[in-house]
Design a protein that fits this description.
heterodimer; A: Rossmann fold; 8-stranded mixed sheet; 5 helices; 8 strands; globular; B: alpha/beta; Rossmann fold; 6-stranded mixed sheet
């Protein structure tokens, strides 16, 4: 379906637009509670997270769209995600070690279906092998079936080789948070 | 600065313009949460023309309740829109296939003939989320 753009980021509205879009006033995910060697912050206020946690090894990934529209300078992000084709993300090659991936109200997931989100989570899990994947989103932005009890659609999210460690579903605040933990594949019951 | 003015400045989006064209400056009772858009309408809470935009967090039962309150006998003409992305879920035992069917069912239930209807599947600006993506229907009271 053709998408007709109705809004435009300009030099005049750029700052306000960014702040509204990325919900600048939302509380940060507490990275200190998730020990890791690296934190991959995907399309989610990366520069603000770096200021908040100056002692952590944070790697920020921004989409090409965000970098271009909001005029991010090269020192405001580490890697770009190629999102020039809608629903087809190309993830950058990054050498990772014991990393955690955070999607905190990431715009690149906005209006994706549950299966589309799962596809992307599986891609990043294959590519970066994180120990934890944390997905935080507004329920408004997840395009699942809203005419059933959608909780059951969301609890069925599964990522290969990962288990759900935390699940938070709150309709009054419209918050969804799912934390996945990598399975311990070295476990040997014998 | 509001989210609307950040995104649109003083311009109107297509859906704004569509609503304005449907009512052509006639007095309307605007029921919705977009006070800035309401300024472009000839608002009169006593009007027989109703613009009902449901654009905040709600359950299916809320839609029924709001429509019951607003679609009174005195209404002759209605524009009803729902931002589907604000839907929290179906908290009724009714089986609803899609929002289009739900709106059509409601409008007919209250004695209106649907003149126009449509939906916008996706956020038209990727960010533009205060009136779209929406499903909408416009109808007149059936008269004998």
């Amino acid at each position: 379906m053709e998408t007709k753009l109705q809004t435009k980021v300009t030099l005049e509205n750029q700052k306000d637009f960014y702040q509204s879009l990325y919900s600048i006033d939302n509380p940060f995910v507490d990275l200190n509670e998730i020990p890791a060697d690296q934190y991959l912050l995907v399309d989610c206020r990366g520069p603000e997270y770096c200021k908040k946690y100056p002692n952590l090894n944070i790697i920020t990934l921004e989409t090409m769209t965000t970098a271009k529209q909001f005029g991010l300078s090269r020192d405001q992000f580490n890697y770009l995600i190629d999102n020039r084709v809608f629903n087809k993300l190309n993830w950058p090659k990054i050498s990772t070690k014991n990393c955690v991936i955070i999607f905190d109200h990431s715009i690149l997931f906005k209006y994706l279906t549950v299966s589309e989100i799962v596809n992307e989570l599986e891609t990043v899990s294959d590519q970066y092998c994180p120990s934890i994947i944390l997905l935080r989103s507004s329920l408004f932005f997840i395009d699942d079936n809203r005419l059933t009890d959608r909780f059951y659609n969301l609890v069925n999210i599964q990522i290969k080789n990962y288990v759900v460690e935390k699940f938070y579903y709150d309709t009054p605040t419209t918050e969804l948070m799912i934390q996945f933990k990598i399975k311990n594949l070295n476990d040997n019951p014998n | 600065m509001s989210w609307r003015s950040i995104q649109l400045g003083n311009n109107l989006c297509d859906q704004d313009q569509l609503i304005i064209n449907l009512f052509q400056g006639k007095p309307v009772n605007y029921v919705g949460n977009d006070a800035e858009f309401a300024q472009h309408l000839n608002c009169n809470p006593l009007s027989n023309n109703l613009i009902l935009t449901i654009n905040c967090a709600y359950w299916v039962s809320d839609i029924f309740k709001i429509c019951q309150e607003q679609l009174t006998d005195k209404i002759d003409c209605v524009y009803l829109s729902v931002n589907r992305y604000c839907l929290l879920g179906n908290d009724t035992n009714l089986i609803v296939n899609n929002i289009d069917d739900l709106l059509a069912q409601i409008i007919r239930q209250y004695g209106f003939d649907i003149i126009k209807k449509s939906n916008t599947e996706r956020d038209l600006g990727r960010y533009f989320n205060f009136v779209q993506p929406i499903t909408w229907a416009y109808g007149n009271k059936i008269t004998n």
